[in-house]
Amino acid sequence: MMELNARIPNGPLEQKWDNYKNDLKLVSPANKRNYNIICVGTGLAGASASASLAELGYNVMTFCVQDSPRRAHSIAAQGGINAAKNYANDGDSVYRLFYDTIKGGDYRSREANVYRLAQLSGNIIDQCVAQGVPFARDYGGMMTMRSFGGAQVSRTLYARGQTGQQLLLGAYSAMMRQVHAGAVKIFPRREMVELVVIDGRARGIVVRNLITGSLESYVALSVHQCCQLQCFCDMERSQKGRAVGEPMLHADSSDMHTCFREPPEQIDPYERKFAQRWTGVDSQKQGR
Q1: 232, 258 in Cβ contact below 8 A?
Q2: Rounded distance, CA 204 to CA 251, Å?
């Protein structure tokens, strides 16, 4: 029987995630390049996470089911985005945003997560502005806010009737900048099928290539060990040893083998740059 565990930290509601973040172990900037991160989806959350993690120095693999990351469904969110900025000076606060969100969700949301979202709402807007999202502004140049939905105050920032599209374009632009820099590798036309669990921890994903129909497995391990486990089995072989419909949660060594990403001779400049970053190959030492 599956146990649902949200892993919400202990402590008072307004201090749960602050205390948890303060107790986290730090990663040295010199070691961030040794970590590979898999991000599934290129919507507002996926594209922003990919861009931010790549800017911090991590190696990011981003997967999307569409032909282009710009076709994510986040474009449908056109009403606006709420934040406890209180530009209207009408008494808005983190707690009021938290209360309205909990009430609007029919009291079914996880309170700790909603409170953390309210805390970070101002930083999210700052990130969107830094990514170039053209929010509506008044004649003084300040971002204007309007009343929307069940909010008690005016806290919704918007970009005409295209808020979702403009937010997605900003996140997409930030992510593509990291793609050009070689820190993010995009895998389009990939549909996530299952989760790869190694030693009780999620280490990767199994995806279906929508062009060839084959299954591929990508595992985020250290670049010194393995940066990609690729599944060469077909759909029938992947069902070996398990009942139909049973999830394949563990990597099967008979279906996968380790392959290191080394830059081949015949490769375009972008692919060569990305491969050198992932494998640590120095093109000058190799004489390429």
Answers
A1: no
A2: 9
